Amino acid sequence: MTTKTETMDYDEVLERFDPVLGLEVHVELSTRTKMFCGCPNAFGGEPNTHVCPTCLGLPGALPVVNGSAVESAIRIGLGLNCEIAGWCRFARKNYFYPDMPKNFQTSQYDEPIAFDGYLDVELGDGETVRVGIERAHMEEDTGKSLHVGGATGRIHGADYSLLDYNRAGVPLIEIVTKPITGAGRRAPEVARAYVTALRDLLRAMGVSDVRMDQGSLRCDANVSLSPKGDEAFGTRSETKNVNSLRSVERAVRYEMTRQATLLSRGERVVQETRHFQEADGTTSAGRPKETSEDYRYFPEPDLVPIAPSSAWVEELRSTLPELPWERRRRIQQEWQLTDEELRDLVNTGAADVVAATVDAGAPVDDARSWWVQFLTEQANSRGVDLADLPVTPAQVARVIALISEGTLTNKLGREVVLGVLAGEGDPDEVIASRGLEVVSDDSALTAAIDEALAAQPDVVEKIRGGKVQAAGAIVGAVMKATQGQADAKRVRELILQRCGAE
Amino acid sequence: MSQISRDELAHLAKLARLGVSEAELDTFVGQLDVILDSVAKVGEVAGDDIPPMSHAANLTNVFRSDEIRPGLSQQEALSGAPASEDGRFCVPRILGEEQ
User: Fold this and answer.
1) Which residues 404-423 of chain A have a CB within 8 Å of chain B?
2) Within 10 Å of residue B95's Cβ, how many Cβ atoms?
3) Which of A478, B35, B47, B62 is the most exposed place for a label (fewest CB within 10 A)?
4) What value does the mean pLDDT of chain A take?
5) Three-state DSSP class for residue A372
6) Mean pLDDT of B30-45
7) pLDDT surpasses 50 at A2
8) CB contact under 8 A, B86 and A162
9) Adjacency order of strands within the sheet including A144-148
10) What letter would DSSP give residue A370?
């Protein structure tokens, strides 16, 4: 543990050092079943209920590869402009850690299914940076540990740990960039933009639900510094637990400053994993990094090689969707947005969700206003990215449709969406369980109106005398009595009718 | 000729969580060299035209369809565990073992 000292100013860091980044992103595929067995691939669930002898590593159980997961892996490789291996194998990565009950993780080592690609990443000001992709390989996720005892619930100081293997064996693709050099001041921004672009791409392909908050997309950020003008890379740290786009940016910036401070004092950067602390944006030392020899990789003897034919690869290439950035160019034209409007839409993370909401049948203006206003507020107050809100474009489109057909008012629509965000189900389920439908039954309304009219005879006189705008007071009283669940326009009509002022 | 050092062997034993005594290290270093030499002989006969194999069956692309199959209940899953708590496997303290 180093003691807290003055950290170097960011400008000074950049005067003296060049940052080099390497980003490793793990993405859980949204297949129905796990990578090597037929257990459900589902988030959550009672502990150890999505398990079988294979993913528990019981003696004699044998893995069989999920063909859909291989297809997703190839499609991801193609989306990242990678070469697809003509022949590759799985490998055992051996380590003793109870998150894998087999004592090894089935992964790929020197024969990744996809390699040598790139992703063009757009920064906030419209500048494009090409990030090289080293490889994308297939592996399996680990189980989840719960550390008991100790003060913090962390592994340090815990008395013992509890393991849930529901996630063990879930198909995982690890995507590794080539070293990203020359980003300088913008390195933290490039890191964030890369993960954003990758997330958008994977979402558009439909291969993962890419929820950083649920861990279906996770980023490890490798950062090192070279003294200005020095070609050789410095010693790197690998920051884990970076669970939001904002954290990716903060973690990279923090590590740049921390390492520069160490180096400028003549100290060494230790090659180690570090943990990102969401609360204060710092990183703390984890375990020293194992060397890859320590994992004693060897080809997995229980699985046969994968040899995708070029016909299969081309067939999968033809299933690639419109890429997010192409879609953005198209929606800019179709929606007649200026560059600035489009950039705002992209920077708030709204472009793709708005487009998906439009695809689900909503008018462009409604879709835009829901995401850019109400839902952006919700995302901000929860501290999550817009796309990570637990509401889908299809659900938003449904609410918009219900409003336009008069089943919901705008106010009720917002309440329905809040219910969806609270995990109460689809809009229609929320409406049913919260009883949110607009009161369109005239007899129910009439009763409330008669009551309000009786309470304010002076207003009734005014209306009868031709002052129809006085009806507003009655409308207000009725809306209050029905807790906002009435259609104000219909209420007004009924008031005028009953006062004979039509 | 010695291909594996005593230190390397001790490191490997540690990685594999094997308790190997000092005396055993001396014995095994020599034995492992014999094994490594024997395996190296295979490399002498296999020419560049013979691709390395990891599997006896000459198969590729053996896939399963993405369909859910019944697995174990929580009770069954935990039935062989020495200890469990709240439906989870209970394992001893993880860190500390290495120090």
Assistant:
1) none
2) 14
3) B47
4) 90
5) helix
6) 88
7) no
8) yes
9) A144-148, A160-164, B88-92, B84-85
10) I
